[in-house]
Specification:
With about 325 residues, the protein is an alpha+beta fold. It contains 13 helices and 12 strands. Strands 4-5-8-6-7 form a 5-stranded antiparallel beta sheet. A 4-stranded antiparallel beta sheet has the order 9-10-11-12. It has a 3-stranded parallel beta sheet with strand order 1-3-2, with helices on one face. A hairpin with a 2-residue loop joins strand 6 and strand 7. Helix 5 runs antiparallel to helix 9, helix 11 runs antiparallel to helix 12 and helix 12 runs antiparallel to helix 13. The chain binds flavin-adenine dinucleotide and iron/sulfur cluster (SF4).
């Protein structure tokens, strides 16, 4: 591992000043992703600015009826929060579906959003990778890609975003708040992650040096009946091969409102807006859920070894929506 300078940030503006826009410096939160990448040589920062002790760990109701979540709140605290469990159950379930208890105690909200892909070529510095080294190539496309993207990928990168939390936050229209030397600003989560296009190394729309200070959740009444379902290759402690965050409001047998996002199928959490349009106003039946899933997945462009994800995501979507509908009928 490269030698690095370590500084503990005194406060938010001090953290931003210490990072100083330096492309060779990184914020350190729980370290559960960054330190792993430093050990493998994927990340080689000259300076770490530790933000873990900043007073950004609160989770509190917002004036508009939503919720404010600080960037250094741990994944465990977020999942356990009573407001999250009752008003945004899909979020609590998504967080609990990720990593292990010990990791969730260390991992923070800001770090979770900015964790890097788990593509095995990305983490192996002996291999080329356009995301790690622009222009070097993408061995995944002709090589091992059974867990790679089926939606929104490009000729240069087919990696998927690994976060479970970000999928639920996408379905909930969360807003990401950040600070730079120019002051405070915010981005809807739907605009946080850049389309992969020709520049897979540019992953987010955050300006250089931005410190995420928190995430706000608007009041989303439909989310009170919501669910996150994750499929993985073993029962626990694994990243998703496909996941669905869904919320459903049915009135008089008709879908009144719906939210849907997919995980592990694209370079970013995938908001299934086409499916939502099919759902809203349609009869609340398994046929409607299947039609919605199929409409969304019509844009899928699987590779030779990951076509199974199209069927998986269709079935997962129908199952989750059907379960939510049954729950509503009880
Ligand atoms: C074995 C294992 C299994 C896992 N399984 C899952 C899983 O199933 N699902 C899942 O979603 N995740 C999983 N994770 C990932 C884990 O959730 C992330 O490592 C964690 O959320 C990252 O948070 P952190 O606070 O440790 O971030 P760090 O590792 O400290 O930082 C990650 C990145 O975010 C940046 N950063 C951190 N905080 C800020 C901030 N406030 N502002 C700006 N930049 C910031 C850092 O500079 C770094 O680039 C797993 C991790 C491991 C090691
Ligand atoms: S899929 Fe993306 S991250 Fe993986 S090797 Fe190709 S360019 Fe790199």
């Amino acid at each position: 591992m490269r030698e690095f300078d370590y500084r503990r940030a005194p406060d938010v503006s001090g953290a931003v000043a210490l990072l100083d826009d330096d492309p060779d410096a990184r914020y350190l939160a729980g370290g559960t992703n960054l330190v792993d990448l430093m050990k493998s040589g994927v990340e080689r920062p000259a300076r770490l600015v530790d933000v873990r002790e900043l007073p950004l760990d609160r989770i509190e109701p917002a004036a508009d009826g939503g919720l404010l979540v600080g960037a250094t709140a741990t994944n465990s605290d977020l999942a356990a929060h009573p407001e999250v469990r009752s008003h945004y159950p899909m979020l609590a379930q998504a967080v609990l579906a990720g990593a292990s208890g010990q990791l969730r105690n260390m991992a923070t909200v800001g770090g979770n959003l900015l964790q890097r892909t788990r593509c095995a070529y990305f983490t192996d510095t002996t291999k080329p990778c356009n995301k790690r080294e622009p222009g070097s190539g993408c061995p995944a496309i002709s090589g091992e890609h059974h867990n790679h993207a089926i939606l929104g990928a490009s000729e240069t990168c087919v990696a998927v975003h690994p976060s479970d939390m970000a999928v639920a936050l996408t379905a909930l229209d969360a807003v990401v708040h950040y600070e730079t030397a120019d002051g405070q600003s915010e981005l809807p989560i739907g605009q946080l992650y850049l389309p992969v296009a020709e520049t897979p190394h540019r992953e987010t729309a955050l300006p250089a040096g931005a410190l995420i200070t928190g995430v706000s959740l608007p009041r989303v009444p439909v989310a009170a009946r919501s669910r996150y379902r994750k499929v993985r290759e073993r029962a626990s402690y694994a990243f998703a091969i496909g996941s669905v965050a869904a919320a459903l409001d049915i009135r008089d047998g008709v879908v009144h409102d719906a939210r849907l996002a997919f995980g592990a199928v694209a370079s970013r959490p995938w908001r299934a807006r086409t499916a939502e349009r099919v759902l809203i106003g349609a009869p609340a039946t398994a046929e409607t859920y299947a039609a919605a899933a199929e409409a969304e997945l019509a844009a899928a462009r699987p590779l030779p070894h990951n076509g199974y994800k199209v069927t998986l995501m269709r079935n997962l979507t129908v199952a989750v929506l059907s379960e939510l509908a049954e729950e509503a009928a009880r």
